[in-house]
Design a protein that fits this description.
The chain has four helices and no strands. The radius of gyration is 20 Å and the shape is elongated. By secondary structure, it is mainly α. The protein has one domain.
Length: 89
């Protein structure tokens, strides 16, 4: 056999590793969201999907960026578009 059985109670197994997304994937998601918003004359989503893409997803994405200044720039751009879309609703 040659393979040692690991302990069921090993320390490393007790603390699962936190998933850390690739920052470029986060940027791509924010870019895509912003492009959809800029291309729209009114909110491109309705109901629960609007709530998801307006209130839930962006803050989660900002939090995953390694640089707070970059996150603030994305937040400002997306909030500006949200204000524009709110004004025409």
């Amino acid at each position: 056999m040659g393979l040692a059985q690991q302990s069921l109670f090993a320390e490393e197994e007790l603390a699962p590793k936190r998933y850390v997304p690739n920052p470029q994937h986060v940027r791509n998601s924010l870019k895509s969201l912003l492009e959809q918003m800029r291309a729209a004359e009114r909110w491109p989503w309705e109901g629960a999907v609007l709530t998801l893409y307006r209130d839930i997803v962006p803050p989660q994405l900002y939090a995953e960026l390694p640089d707070a200044e970059e996150a603030a720039r994305w937040r400002a751009e997306i909030e500006a578009e949200a204000a524009r879309l709110d004004a025409v609703a």
